Amino acid sequence: MTANPLTALTGRRADVMRDPDVERVARRIMREAVEVGRAAGAALTDAHVDRAVHWLQHVPEGSTTSMREDRLAGRPLEYDALTGAVVRAAEHHGIDVPANRFVLALLSAIEQEGRAA
Questions:
Q1: Where are the domains of the chain?
Q2: Residue 82's pLDDT is what?
Q3: How many helices (H) and strands (E) does the chain have?
Q4: What is the pLDDT of residue 111?
Q5: How far apart are CA 42 and CA 29, in angstroms?
Q6: Which of the four, 30, 54, 83, 111, has the lowest number of CB atoms within 10 Å?
Q7: How far is CA 98 from the centre of its chain?
Q8: Ketopantoate reductase C-terminal domain: which residues (predicted)?
Q9: Distance from C-alpha of 20 to C-alpha of 23, rounded to nearest angstrom
């Protein structure tokens, strides 16, 4: 729910997760999702965020994501099943998720551009 959108938006492979500015954004996206998950009853902690970021920063060189590949190929993006699900669940629980909303808006704009072309 972070690497897919962020690689699709930047056009970069998974190495983008090693960029300190992108890491900060990724952590915020994940912390919002953890908060939503907790509200839904999941036993999530900040340690889950740390482990996920660590894993993403250590994937093999050249790794990519399906959403990046879909964007490059002009295929529909799976953002609604990932970021959209977090935003919908947040709305259900009355939780503000500004980073996820921002990413959702950007991905939606890409999709709309593709339909207009």
A1: 3-116
A2: 95
A3: 7, 0
A4: 79
A5: 17
A6: 54
A7: 12
A8: 1-111
A9: 5
Q: Please tell me the predicted confidence (pLDDT) of residue 114.
A: 59
Q: What is the model's pLDDT at position 115?
A: 59
* CB-CB contact of 63 with 14 (8 Å): yes
3-state percent helix, strand, coil for the chain, nearest multiple of 5: 75, 0, 25
Give pLDDT, residue 59: 96
Amino acid at 67: M
Residue 112: per-residue pLDDT: 78
Q: Is residue 83 within 8 Å of 107, Cβ to Cβ?
A: yes
Q: Cβ of 48: how many Cβ atoms within 10 Å?
A: 16
What architecture is the 3-116 domain classified under in CATH?
A: Orthogonal Bundle (1.10)
Instruction: State the 10-residue block means of pLDDT for the chain, 117 residues long.
Output: 96 97 98 98 97 97 96 95 97 98 97 65
CA 49 to chain centre: 13
The pLDDT of residue 116 is: 57
Which candidate, 79, 24, 90, 33, places its Cα nearest to that of 53? 24
